[in-house]
C-alpha cells in the first residue's frame, strides 16, 4: 500500500521524497546512511525527517494489518457490507477502526447478551424508537419465568441493558465522547486514606486537579507513578453532566414519553458502566503516550548532548575515583585509553595520608608522562580536586572534574568484566572516568543510557519506545562523529550504521587475529560482512593510517572513483586535493553531476576533502568550580558561581556547582525573557554562570538563577502584595521536594 501522499502531507514534504525514503528503508538502509549518502534520492531529508517517515510507515502498516483482521472477522460473521467495508478501509486511526469494529467484536457474556438470550431485544428496539407506547403492556408480554423474566421491571431492565450496549457501540458518539474527555476532562488525584505519611513525596497531589489538555508530561507521569505505588487515587474524566448532556443530545428524540425516559436511564447506565470506563482507559493511554513522547524527547536530547561532549583526545590520563574511608582509586591510562597502572591513595579522613598520597601522584605523573587528571564528581570529589591542585604539578597538566554518573553501573557490567576480568569493580570505575574525559562518546555507549543520569521518569515511560529512541540517538551521535575502526570497542562499533553486535564482534576478532585494518576494502574480508553491510557502514568507519587517503574521511568508497577523476582532471593526486585549497577551488562541481550524484553530495565531498575525518564536536575546554565552595554549607544566597548543566527537564535545568548536590534553575529563571523550552537556552555539559537564590541544607535543596538580576522581580512582588498571602504551589511529582520551595520563593 502507498502511504507517501498521507505522510508527505503530515510532514510537509513531497510525496516523491517520502516514496524514495520508504524504498531505501525497505532495502535495508539505515537512517544515518540515507540522510548522509542518499541526499539526491530523498531531496536532502535530514535524520529527523527520515526517522519520522520510518516510524509513520510502521504505524500505517500496523493499521493496515489490523484492518485486514477486522474485515476478515466481520466477513466470517456474514455481516460485511460494502458500506461497512468502506468505513473500515477509511478509518484513519486505530481508535476509529476499533469504534467501527466494536459492535462486531466477539465479546464475553454481558448484561446485554444475557438479555438477548431472554428474548428481550424486540422490546429494546420498540423502546429505542422512542415512540409513545404503553410500556407496562408491552413489557408484560415478555414476562417468562423459564427465562427468569419475572416482572415488568425485569423486562425493562433487560431492554435497558441492550440499549446501553447499542449506545456504547455508536462509533460517532464514541468519537465525540473521546473529544469531550480530552478537551474538558480533568485529572483529579487524592491521597488514599491512611497513606498520608507514607506518600509524603506526593503531598502536592493529595488534593490536586487540572485540565487533561494542559497537564504537562512530568505531572502526568508523577500522578500515574503515585497511583501505581498505591498512594494516590487518580481520575481523568469530564463533569458527568457534560457527558450525559452530549449523549442525550445525540440519542434522544424531542418526544416526551415513557420510552424516552427509559432511554434516558439507559444513557446514564451506559455512561457509568460502559462508556466512562472505556473512555477513561483510552484517554489515560493517549495522555500517557503523549507524556511518554515528551519525556523521551527530553531524555534523547539530553543524551545526545552528553554523548557529543567535547573530547580531550588521545592523551595520557590519570583518573581518580574519589572516596574518604575507602580511599581514592587511581589509574593511569595510555593515549588510546589502555590500562597501565593502578594505585590506592588515602589523602582524606580518616587515614589522612596526604603526604604519601601526594608523592604517589607526583611520581606517577612523571613516570607515565600524564597530561591530564580526571577526578570523579561524586563523594570526596571536590576535596580530591583541591588536594591534587595543591601538589604543585606542572601547569601543563590539566586537572578537571568528570561526571561519573553510571560509572558504577559500567564497572559491574558484562562489558567491564570482558574488558578487565582481573580488575576490581572500583578500579574499572576509575578507568571509565578517565576514558570519559578522553572520549565521552566512546565510553558512554558502554552504559545503559537510563543509568547515565539524564532525563526524567525514564523508568515510567514505554520501555520499547524509550529503547528505540535511545538507540536512534546513540546511532546518530556515533555515525555523526565517525569511528576509528582500529581502536573502537565492540560496543562503539555496534552502533555504526549497518553493523550491530555480531558484525561488531567479528570486526574486533578479525582485527585481533590479523592486525590493524589498512584499508576500508579489507572490511569485506570480515566474516558475514557482506556488500549491503559494507555499503551502510563504510562511510562512517575511519582508518587513519590507511594507504588510500580517503579511507580516513567521510567520503564513501562508492565515490572514490569520482574524487580520483576530479584529481586527474587537475593533473593532481587525491592527496594533493586534500592538502591544497587552491586546487579545490578549481573544481567545477557541475561538471561531475550525474543521475546518481548531485550538487548536495558533491558539496559534502568538497567539504570533506578540506577537513577529512573532521570531528564535529566542540574543542575541549578546562572547567573549574569556585575553589572556596566545596559543600552545600558553603553556599550563600546571592553568590555567583560557575556551574555545569547536568540535566534538562520540562520545568528547568539542573546545574552542578561543585557541592555534590545539583541545584535547580527553574524555567522562569533560565533567562531574562520568557522561556518555553529549556533547550532554547541550555544544553547538557554547558558551562554557565548562576546566582544562588535559596539554600535548604536539611532537605538538600538549592535554588539557582541564570537571570542577570534574579532578585529584581522578587523585590517588585514584595512591594505589590503582602507576604502573608500564601501562593498555591505547582507540584512536580518526585521532583516536588526540590521545586516546591523554589516556586514558593519565586512567587509562582
Description of the molecule:
The chain has 748 residues and is an alpha/beta fold. Helix 11 runs parallel beside helix 15 and helix 12 runs antiparallel to helix 14. It is globular and about 105 Å long. Mean pLDDT is 90; it is low at 718-748. Residues 156-183 form a coiled coil. It comes from Algoriphagus iocasae. It holds the Pfam family Tex_central_region. Residues 638-707 form the S1 motif domain.
Total DSSP E strands: 15
State which percent range the strand residues make up. Answer: 5-15%
**Estimated structural class:** alpha/beta
Count helical runs: 31
Largest sheet: 5 strands, mixed
**Oligomer classification:** single chain
Q: Which topology of the largest domain does CATH recognise?
A: Tex N-terminal region-like
The Rg value, from CA coordinates, equals: 33 Å
Q: What is the count of distinct domains? A: 4
Mean pLDDT score: 90
Can you tell me the overall shape?
Answer: globular
**Helical content (DSSP H or I, runs of 4+):** 40-55%
Keywords:
single chain; 748 residues; alpha/beta; Arc Repressor Mutant, subunit A; Tex N-terminal region-like; Nucleotidyltransferase, domain 5; five-stranded mixed beta sheet; 47% helix; disordered C terminus
Offer a quick outline of the entry.
This protein has 31 helices and 15 strands.
Amino acid at each position: 500500500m502507498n502511504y507517501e501522499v498521507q505522510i508527505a502531507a503530515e510532514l510537509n514534504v513531497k510525496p516523491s521524497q517520502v516514496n524514495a525514503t520508504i524504498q531505501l528503508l525497505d532495502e535495508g538502509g539505515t537512517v544515518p546512511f540515507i540522510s548522509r549518502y542518499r541526499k539526491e534520492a530523498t531531496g536532502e531529508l535530514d535524520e529527523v525527517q527520515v526517522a519520522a517517515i520510518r516510524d509513520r510507515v510502521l504505524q500505517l502498516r500496523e493499521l493496515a494489518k489490523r484492518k485486514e483482521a477486522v474485515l476478515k472477522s466481520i466477513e466470517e460473521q456474514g455481516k460485511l457490507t460494502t458500506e461497512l467495508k468502506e468505513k473500515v478501509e477509511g478509518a484513519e486511526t486505530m481508535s476509529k477502526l476499533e469504534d467501527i469494529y466494536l459492535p462486531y467484536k466477539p465479546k464475553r457474556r454481558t448484561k446485554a447478551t444475557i438479555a438477548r438470550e431472554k428474548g428481550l431485544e424486540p422490546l429494546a428496539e420498540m423502546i429505542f424508537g422512542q415512540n409513545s407506547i404503553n410500556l407496562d403492556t408491552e413489557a408484560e408480554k415478555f414476562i417468562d419465568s423459564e427465562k427468569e423474566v419475572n416482572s415488568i421491571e425485569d423486562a425493562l431492565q433487560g431492554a435497558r441493558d441492550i440499549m446501553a450496549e447499542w449506545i456504547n457501540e455508536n462509533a460517532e458518539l464514541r468519537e465525540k465522547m473521546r473529544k469531550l474527555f480530552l478537551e474538558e476532562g480533568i485529572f483529579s488525584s487524592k491521597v488514599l486514606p491512611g497513606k498520608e505519611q507514607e506518600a509524603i513525596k506526593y503531598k502536592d497531589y493529595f488534593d490536586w486537579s487540572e485540565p487533561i489538555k494542559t497537564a504537562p508530561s512530568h505531572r502526568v507521569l508523577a500522578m500515574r507513578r503515585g497511583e501505581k505505588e498505591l498512594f494516590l487515587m487518580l481520575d481523568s474524566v469530564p463533569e458527568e453532566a457534560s457527558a450525559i448532556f452530549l449523549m442525550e443530545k445525540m440519542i434522544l428524540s424531542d418526544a416526551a414519553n415513557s420510552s424516552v425516559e427509559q432511554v434516558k436511564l439507559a444513557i446514564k447506565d451506559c455512561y457509568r458502566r460502559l462508556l466512562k470506563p472505556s473512555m477513561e482507559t483510552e484517554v489515560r493511554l493517549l495522555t500517557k503516550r503523549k507524556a511518554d513522547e515528551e519525556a523521551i524527547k527530553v531524555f534523547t536530547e539530553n543524551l545526545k548532548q552528553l554523548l557529543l561532549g567535547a573530547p580531550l583526545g588521545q592523551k595520557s590520563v590519570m583518573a581518580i575515583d574519589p572516596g574518604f574511608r575507602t580511599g581514592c582509586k587511581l589509574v593511569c591510562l595510555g593515549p588510546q585509553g589502555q590500562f597501565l597502572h593502578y594505585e590506592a591513595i588515602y589523602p582524606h579522613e580518616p587515614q589522612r595520608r596526604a603526604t604519601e598520597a601526594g608523592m604517589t601522584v607526583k611520581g606517577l605523573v612523571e613516570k607515565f608522562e600524564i597530561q591530564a587528571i580526571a577526578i570523579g564528581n561524586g563523594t570526596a570529589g571536590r576535596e580530591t580536586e583541591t588536594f591534587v591542585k595543591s601538589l604543585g604539578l606542572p601547569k601543563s597538566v590539566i586537572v578537571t572534574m568528570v561526571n561519573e554518573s553510571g560509572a558504577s553501573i559500567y564497572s559491574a557490567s558484562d562489558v567491564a568484566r570482558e574488558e578487565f576480568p582481573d580488575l576490581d569493580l572500583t578500579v574499572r570505575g576509575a578507568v571509565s572516568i578517565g576514558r570519559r574525559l578522553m572520549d565521552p562518546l566512546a565510553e558512554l555507549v558502554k552504559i545503559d543510557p537510563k543509568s547515565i543520569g539524564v532525563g526524567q521518569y525514564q523508568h515510567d515511560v514505554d520501555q520499547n519506545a524509550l529503547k528505540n529512541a535511545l538507540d536512534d540517538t546513540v546511532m546518530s551521535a556515533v555515525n555523526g562523529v565517525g569511528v576509528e575502526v582500529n581502536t573502537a570497542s565492540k560496543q562503539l562499533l555496534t552502533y555504526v550504521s549497518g553493523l550491530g553486535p555480531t558484525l561488531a564482534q567479528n570486526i574486533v576478532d578479525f582485527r585481533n587475529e590479523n592486525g590493524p585494518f589498512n584499508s576500508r576494502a579489507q572490511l569485506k574480508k570480515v566474516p558475514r560482512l557482506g556488500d549491503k553491510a559494507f555499503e551502510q557502514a563504510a562511510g562512517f568507519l575511519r582508518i587513519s593510517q590507511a594507504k588510500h587517503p580517503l579511507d580516513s574521511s567521510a567520503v564513501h568508497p562508492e565515490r572514490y572513483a569520482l574524487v580520483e577523476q576530479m584529481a586527474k582532471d587537475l593533473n593532481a593526486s587525491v592527496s594533493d586535493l586534500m592538502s591544497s585549497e587552491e586546487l579545490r577551488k578549481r573544481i567545477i562541481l557541475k561538471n561531475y553531476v550525474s543521475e546518481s550524484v548531485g550538487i548536495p553530495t558533491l558539496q559534502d565531498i568538497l567539504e570533506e576533502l578540506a577537513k577529512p575525518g573532521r570531528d564535529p564536536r566542540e574543542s575541549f575546554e578546562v572547567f573549574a568550580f569556585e575553589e572556596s565552595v566545596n559543600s552545600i554549607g558553603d553556599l550563600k544566597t546571592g553568590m555567583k558561581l560557575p556551574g555545569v548543566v547536568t540535566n534538562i527537564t520540562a520545568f528547568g535545568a539542573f546545574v552542578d556547582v561543585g557541592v555534590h548536590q545539583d541545584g535547580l534553575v527553574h524555567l522562569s529563571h533560565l533567562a531574562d525573557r520568557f522561556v518555553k523550552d529549556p533547550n532554547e537556552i541550555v544544553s547538557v555539559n554547558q558551562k554557565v554562570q548562576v546566582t544562588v537564590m535559596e539554600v535548604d541544607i536539611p532537605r538538600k535543596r538549592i535554588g539557582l538563577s541564570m537571570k542577570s538580576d534574579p532578585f529584581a522581580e522578587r523585590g517588585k512582588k514584595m512591594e505589590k502584595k503582602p507576604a502573608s498571602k500564601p501562593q498555591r504551589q505547582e507540584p512536580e511529582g518526585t521532583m516536588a521536594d526540590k521545586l516546591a520551595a523554589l516556586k514558593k520563593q519565586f512567587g509562582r
